[in-house]
């Protein structure tokens, strides 16, 4: 295993198992941000005169990373903003399929509007539950997280591809915030029509930047109402009414989106395949250790595949004990959420297990 920790100084002080809450600032990202603001300090609007080229590079980098044409990518400040813009373009009265207890930015945003809703249960039979509700309720749209924020249950991407083939008329809208950056993903070959993601978690790009990927057919079915000067600015938005321009009515910050470009370049430097291998390795080790200690709920233990995000059994006292031992994690649902990224090691996992066992004594 390569020493990935050098990029993230915080790891010298803490056992950081909290990427699912907030990704870390890397040395490369800090260097970009310092240089960017120094340039802004001494050049002012001259820096902004070149922002079109930078944003074009960001769009191209995102497109290459996720296998999506740049002219089908919208840049937004976060997932929630982009998703709400999208929902404003959906005809009232349409029926949405949601997952029970999915991330509030998805469910609450849909439920706050004049849509019909139906729900599938999140458990070890997630895919079967979805297929059953789709067959019975015939929803127009299905919106969900690729990885569940509380327990880390990860939907089967092959299932989504088959679901789309069986129900081509249903729009499939996915939140990749707890997924993007953990493994290779080819949007163009997937069953997903819209993929949105904030990038401050697993891509370690900081706050204030996100992206939405669209299949070409989406523009004819969703009609967002937002518009502004930014809707017409940029290489891929030369004409009024361009679909992605509806998601970008105002200025896009070169600081934040330059951070996204820097984060993608760091991932490329490390190697996405290497990151994927590291994430899957530590995830498998963690799952085995947690099952041995009886720390997982049955719906997770019974799944064939899982993410690197886990909810382990534990109360306030255990959470505080872990924090006192410099182990950073989060309280979510009825337990404690721990998440492992490519820079986490077996040593980090052992530190966690030892702290849990010492608490039991």
UniProtKB/TrEMBL annotation:
Q: Where is the Aminotransferase class V domain?
A: 49-351
Residues forming coiled coils = none
- Family matches, as Pfam families: Aminotran_5
Q: Does the keyword Transmembrane apply?
A: no
Q: What InterPro entries does this protein's entry cite? A: Aminotrans_V_dom, PyrdxlP-dep_Trfase, PyrdxlP-dep_Trfase_major, PyrdxlP-dep_Trfase_small
Keywords from the named record: Pyridoxal phosphate
Record-given protein name: Cysteine desulfurase
